[in-house]
Amino acid sequence: xxxxxxxxxxxxxxxxxxxxxxxxxxxxxxxxxxxxxxxxxxxxxxxxxxxxxxxxxxxxxxxxxxxxxxxxxxxxxxxxxxxxxxxxxxxxxxxxxxxxxxxxxxxxxxxxxxxxxxxxxxxxxxxxxxxxxxxxxxxxxxxxxxxxxxxxxxxxxxxxxxxxxxxxxxxxxxxxxxxxxxxxxxxxxxxxxxxxxxxxxxxxxxxxxxxxxxxxxxxxxxxxxxxxxxxxxxxxxxxxxxxxxxxxxxxxxxxxxxxxxxxxxxxxxxxxxxxxxxxxxxxxxxxxxxxxxxxxxxxxxxxxxxxxxxxxxxxxxxxxxxxxxxxxxxxxxxxxxxxxxxxxxxxxxxxxxxxxxxxxxxxxxxxxxxxx
Length: 372
Hints:
GO molecular function: aminomethyltransferase activity; methyltransferase activity
GO biological process, one term: methylation
Order of helices and strands: EEHEEHEEEHEEHEEEHEHHEHEEEEE
Helix content: 10-25%
Binding site for substrate: 202
Protein name: Aminomethyltransferase
Distance between the termini: 39 Å
Keywords: Methyltransferase, Transferase
């Protein structure tokens, strides 16, 4: 169903959306299209060519001041003091009781400057509380930065055409950043990362130069098969990659150990928000996020309750047609820990289909493409 978009904000790149753009959804207060042309073409661009995806909607907090690093470390689950130069850390922010608020990235941009990117305004509130009375300013900067994610096997070749900076794997490895790159003559902060399980980069530029960036990247990549891609294709690739989303695969009833983020909790670091509670939660994992294949259509599977031996054990969080599985229905699901074993067969409430727990991820299980 098409939502009312007149109450939502336009994104920095929306003036370039084509006339064929489909219905929109609400992403953190912005109107975001489900597709520009069709999800199949856009999926193909992400997996086999190069795609442009907008991530301007995510919250971005800049912490500046002498205590910026200390305040970020007081909230974030990873130890930012141990990061190597220009490394990006992926981790979580939890409530004081140890339940999930957000999955975020963090980077130390310089002395007294940390940037955290996530999807829940509660992260900003936690940073403000941790910074009270300290030498730090916490600013949410979505209004100043546009973010264009360039993803797919041809993404490096495309961006290399637009910059003198060496974009090779050796010079710009996975999960690193460069805060002072020029792309098409535009000052840019570039992260090598993405939400697609493909080689890719996120390019941040001042909002007033967003359309200039879009036009330059599209013009330079025509022979590489560049294609704008929207939310429907992104959801397909992220489900295939087993990548979680807030209020979908987790909420404030989930611990990091229950939504595939336990690895990102550094219980050896000094105290941070929720650490004491997490020590208790790590040995009390009651649910898991798993991948399941289903023998019914995605719209039937979406949010369906899952049964094991006649008892409800969880539910489907998001179901998509998976090209990686020849078009079969694939979903992520939250299930009770005893039902999470690979190969477990589950029923759908109402006997509308069957599900089988499979290995996560189904696409590129060794994560070699993102590191190539």
